[in-house]
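If you are new to this repository, start here. Below is one unmodified record pulled from the training split, so you can see the exact layout before writing a loader.
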Amino acid sequence: MPATVVVGTQWGDEGKGKLTDLLAKDVRLVVRYQGGHNAGHTVVVDGESFTLQLVPSGVLYPSTVPVIGNGVVVDPAVLVAECDALEARGVDTSRLVVSGNAHLIMPYHYELDRATERSLGRNKLGTTKRGIGPAYADKAARVGLRVQDLLDARIFRQKLEIALREKNAVLARVHNRLALDEEEIAHRYLDELAPRVGPMVGDAVALVHDALDAGEHVMLEGAQATFLDLDHGTYPFVTSSNPTAGGACVGAGIGPRDVDRVVGIAKSYVTRVGAGPFPTELHGELADLLVERGHEYGTNTGRRRRPGWLDLVMLRHAVRLNSVSEIALTKLDVLTGLPSVKVCVAYDDSGERLERFPYHQSVLHRVVPVYEEMPGWEEDISGVTRAEELPAAARDYVGRIAAAAGVPVSLVGVGPGREQFVRFAA
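And here is the target side for that same chain:
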């Protein structure tokens, strides 16, 4: 059975964790394919909230094998702490498999991330300062340490010595920071963390392909989203990996012909964390209302998210970039009670109407959204279980989104709970 990719179509925080959890009950493997612990997923089960950073959402189902793929960067201390926290709440993490080819986040990555962000001043990117970017930079520069290096102390120490020689020089001479102690790091990673992480390490690529060959369903779960993609996002205000569907293949070790379903997650409005262009951004009372109703604060950082109306120009572009086959729309309930709702159908660039997402960042920074206004609805939809039970105005809103995106909306979220979704005929 071919694989399913779950991908965010906006700037993240669309509800991928909840959607992945909903679909995971029918799959054998859930594979996290990129990112690190800079992106958290929140899943609500029977009123109990679970926050996941590195562990894939499928861990909450005992029949599903959660896999951290080669495209992820892993802080082993965070991974161990997350597993311990889940175990303390009765969640079995013994099935977790971590790719030996995933790269490690090291202490100097944190130091470099913080120092670099400070040095940028007013031009800072708004990173989470969790070492993600520097870890991916080392991966590209071919000087990174990988998860498998935890299993070979000699190799680990050799690589650490070489890396620290350069990193300490940069930290001291460029950023006026104290040097990190090589022996202290080696002890922490080899003596304390390796015994905990070692049993989790495996051949994730073989595991995924064995499942596919056996006709089992595999789901690929990304962090962040399309417009935070290193290549296709609003650069430089992006993450350091490829959250798009193409990145799923690289980060999990499969080919494009192994994927036959791409579910694009879109929030019923848009939010963004940190700096960067945002054509439909809202301010004032309406923005505050969306933030409070939608609990729009970062899962990991607690930072307030910037809210705005749904941008259909963005959504159409995300559908193209990811070959999205269907859309799962989340948080429709947050819009309940508004007298009207708006969607951005085009951009105005000094009198020129743009219906495609501009490739040039200067254009994106200056465009003005062209809105289409639609009637709102007053009815509480949090208990709705069938599409026909939604208010007519809500159904029209969903239909407008599907028409603009060019693909069907198959699921609509009407509340935070695991089962608070309405299925539409795809």
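Two things worth knowing about this chain: The chain has a mean pLDDT of 93. The longest helix spans residues 153-173.
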